[in-house]
Specification:
The complex is a heterodimer of chains A (237) and B (204). With 237 residues, chain A is an alpha+beta fold. Chain A contains six helices and ten strands. In chain B, a hairpin with a 2-residue loop joins strand 5 and strand 6. Classes of the chains: A alpha+beta (237), B alpha+beta (204). Chains A and B meet through helix 2 and helix 3 of A and helix 2 of B.
């Protein structure tokens, strides 16, 4: 069998069409957003299930990669799963070598590297997801977005998926640099509600935060319980 | 003759009050013959991390080059200097990778970590680390060094006192070892400066 070349090739205008199409797919996906505060990061995602028969407890979109970093996505779920597995393995490899948790920028960069490889390797297609990487390390709280092309950016606040344009406009108006985590959660929920179809409640969204409990060594990424989300939602009313 | 005794060496590291010291002899020998007396066995990785290596000279030199490579890559990627405990783990991983065909060196790492906390660590040739807060030794003179350090070490020595103690320990120990000696150098690493001295010692 012959050596298969890349399926992602340039067109005359200089575009990599496959990547454009991948981005289109991402923009059809359910909205996810993230906000960086002075003392942590919050990420929220639409977890609406399409049938009452779905057992939502067993299904999580937000996943932790290290104790202090986590992912959420917009786009093709199964593609996301591959990236999560890869990122976890990478992070463990880092820990084996250095016995220190991987910095957030490393986690983001390694995911971006994998995604870029799939735009240049033979016989594969780009990942149909954009990732939001939220974490806290020696450089403080950080939020990165990684696109199917492998490009990645640090954000103060951002949204991906359906309605990301409106969500980002909303965030631009509401964001301020001195926000603390509780305010950020409040704004994140308000932003999510803006673009949510139907009633938004603690069971059809997922929220996670990463923060430092006191000045105690390690930051802690965790998904909020439905009860905690309910409390924040009540405050937001 | 053990391969670890082919060249001969004595390396010691000690913790003081907000400082660490690391010292070694300077003999480069080929079994009984002394070939040079200016061989460095303690290398700076960066201002607050030093590594001293006892054992086969060729492996020591190769490892220094490999450590410098890994460190440069680390600093470029992470945009920060590596901490001594993290470096120690890196050394340990690198040595264990060669578990069934090892580098014949037994390194000693000394440095200042977060908030300038003194850190020392030593390991065997396949990367098994040991961490203490007093002193660690390595080389053909290790047994002599254990004896002298145990007797002369006190915790929380100021940099100048630590320098004296490390120097006396090293000299006394390598004088009893025919494969180590012929000069000595000492580094005392403090938060704001590094004291580096070459000792006048017996040339035999």
């Amino acid at each position: 069998m012959g050596d298969i070349g890349s399926l992602t090739t340039f067109d005359k205008s200089g575009k990599l069409t496959q990547i454009e199409y991948a981005l289109n797919r991402v923009n059809q996906g359910k909205t996810s957003l993230g906000i960086k505060a002075t003392n942590g990061v919050v990420i929220v995602t639409d977890k609406k299930v399409h049938s009452v028969l779905v057992d939502a407890d067993e299904y999580h979109k937000i996943q932790s990669i290290t104790p202090s970093t986590g992912f959420v996505y917009a786009g093709i779920g199964p593609d996301y799963r591959v990236l999560v597995t890869n990122a976890r393995k990478s992070a463990q490899k880092y820990y084996l070598t250095y016995r220190e948790l991987s910095p957030v920028s490393e986690v983001a960069r390694e995911a971006a590297t994998v995604m870029q490889e799939y735009t240049q390797s033979g016989g594969v297609r780009p990942f149909g997801v954009s990732l939001l990487v939220a974490g806290y390390d020696h450089e403080g709280p950080q939020l990165y977005q990684v696109d199917p092309s492998g490009a990645y950016f640090g954000w103060k606040a951002t949204a991906i998926g359906k309605n990301y344009v409106n969500a980002k406009n909303f965030l631009e108006r509401r964001y301020n640099e001195e926000m603390e985590l509780d305010d950020a959660i409040h704004i994140a929920l308000l932003t999510m509600r803006e673009s949510y179809e139907g009633e938004m409640n603690e069971n059809n969204i997922e929220v996670a935060i990463v923060s430092k409990p006191e000045d105690n060594e390690d930051a802690n990424f965790r998904v909020l319980t439905p009860q905690e989300i309910k409390d924040y939602l009540e405050e937001a009313n | 003759m053990s391969i670890l005794e082919y060249n001969g060496s004595g390396v010691v590291a000690m913790c003081g009050k907000n400082c660490v010291a690391i010292a070694s002899d300077m003999r480069y020998g080929v079994q009984q013959t002394t070939v040079a007396t200016d061989m460095h066995k303690v290398y700076k990785m960066h201002d607050k991390v030093y590594i001293g290596m006892a054992g086969l000279a060729t492996d020591m030199q190769t490892l220094v080059q490999r450590f410098r490579f890994r460190l440069k890559m680390y600093e470029l990627r992470e945009e920060r200097k590596i901490k001594p405990n993290v470096f120690a783990n890196l050394v340990s991983s690198m040595l264990y990778q060669k578990r069934f065909g090892p580098y014949f060196v037994e390194p000693v790492i000394a440095g200042l970590g977060d908030k300038n906390k003194p850190f020392i660590c030593a390991m065997d040739l396949i990367g098994a680390p040991v961490y203490t807060d007093n002193f660690l030794v390595s080389g053909t003179s290790s047994e002599e060094l254990y004896g002298v350090c145990e007797a002369m070490y006190r915790p929380n020595l100021e940099p100048d006192d630590l320098f004296e103690t490390v120097s006396q320990c090293l000299q006394a120990a390598v004088d009893r070892d025919c494969l180590a000696g012929w000069g000595a150098e000492v580094y005392v690493i403090c938060p704001d400066r590094v004291i580096h001295k070459t000792l006048k010692s017996r040339q035999d």
